[in-house]
Amino acid sequence: MDVSSLTLNRLSLYLRCLRTLQEEGTERISSQQLAERFDLSAPLIRKDLAQFGEFGIRGIGYEVDHLIDRLHSALGLDQQHPLLVVGMGRLGTALARYLGFNDATFRVVAVLDNDAEKVGKEVGDLTIRHTDELEEIVREYGVELGVLTVPAEAAQPMYDALVDAGVQAVLNFAPVSLQLRPGLPSKSVDFRIHLEELVYFLLAKED
Amino acid sequence: MDVSSLTLNRLSLYLRCLRTLQEEGTERISSQQLAERFDLSAPLIRKDLAQFGEFGIRGIGYEVDHLIDRLHSALGLDQQHPLLVVGMGRLGTALARYLGFNDATFRVVAVLDNDAEKVGKEVGDLTIRHTDELEEIVREYGVELGVLTVPAEAAQPMYDALVDAGVQAVLNFAPVSLQLRPGLPSKSVDFRIHLEELVYFLLAKED
DNA sequence: CCATGTGAACAAATTCACAGCA
DNA sequence: TGCTGTGAATTTGTTCACATGG
Predict the structure, then answer these.
(1) Considering only A28-42, A91-105, A135-149, B72-86, which range has the smallest mean pLDDT?
(2) Helices (H) and strands (E) in chain B — how many of each?
(3) Which of A190, B27, B87, B121 has CB 3.0 to 4.6 Å from B92, enough for a Cys bridge?
């Protein structure tokens, strides 16, 4: 089976919403009800969910608890995935702390910087280590995911270093188009691009 | 003309790349050369560019300077757009400073929080103001864009407050699906969803 | 009866293939 | 000749419509 990014992202949204519903004590929900919350169509939601099996009950809807369990494991979220953050500037520090509440799925095991001044300082309950130790750290903790929050100039070499050190997927926050390793999952998050998109929509609305 | 988000996001990437090329002194570039940098197909890039006019020279390619000018104005980036950031936690602070180098396109004119403790503190060269002053601030500076970096629980009410105060587009960093105002451009950036997507790809690679 | 699951219809995005022009 | 610009073909994603089953 081959699930698209679009579907995966929506599934993450559904899952988060379902957890809220669970806390509120809701036991069942229909695709129609979910659709209203997300401004999506009900058949789309059913198609998304159906990619992982038949979770629903005809005539009734989906059982919240059951659906959460199935989605959670289908998405690989029931295992813990060690990650590290490279680049302890403002954004990297903020992200490391934000992600650092270490839930069952993600665990920030190390934070790194290549600036000797920063090495040794504390970020949350972690101590900043030098990027020279990258390979060792990846082996030590079985790091799967790397988060890149270095300046634009440093992003490509650090991406390469991460991959060479054995990191299996990369989330990049540097505003550059990386030359990616084929077959290695990675995503870029780029605030400026989102802002520029919004600006265009404003322009377009003026006619 | 109606340009898709996908196209717009790629245009922003091209533009950034073109500026780098310009600095390096490159005068011309072909769609093929651009395609290699982004792992895209050359016809796709030509289609993207062609939505705004015929910028290229057949047999030669695109003139870097000219293409930058045209894209820049087509995307509405030659006017300055005042924005404000609501939520001066770690992420909001980091973003405000990150965006706060105030280039020709974006200018952070105010940073806000609803916590009286934080009001009055400095973030970069701005002083944190209280969210009660939202409407006044929007009017004062002609704020067009709002960036939301408040905790999940506060996101919906603060989104509504932003829109009611006259903000014309919103970039949301809170991990929730907002109930959006019809016709008002907005985007959500959600780190957790990107991480979850990467995890799924890792799982899928194992077969 | 009612909401799911799904094949068929439709729409959007991308690639292909090539005409047209420097 | 070489690269752009673009209609046609293809692939991908979404919606429609309905058969199915609790």
Answers:
(1) A91-105
(2) 8, 11
(3) B87
Residues, CB < 7 Å to strand D: A 4-7, 40-41, 43-44, 47, 57-60; B 30-32, 42-43, 46-47, 49-50, 54-62
Question: Quick one: average pLDDT of B168-187?
Answer: 97
DSSP letters for A57-114: ETTTEEEHHHHHHHHHHHTTTTS-EEEEEE--SHHHHHHHHHHTT--SSEEEEEEEES
Residues of A in contact with B9 (CB under 8 A): 193, 197
Positive/negative CA dihedral, B124, B129, B131, B137: negative
The reported pLDDT for the residue numbered A207 is: 64
pLDDT by residue (tens digit) across B35-94?
A: 999 999 999 999 999 999 999 999 999 999 999 999 999 999 999 999 999 999 999 999
For the four alpha carbons of A206, B4, B5 and B8, in that order, the dihedral sign comes to negative
SS3 A182: coil
Q: Please name each of the domains of chain A with its CATH number.
A: 5-74 (1.10.10.10), 81-192 (3.40.50.720)
Pairing of strands B81-86, B129-130: unpaired
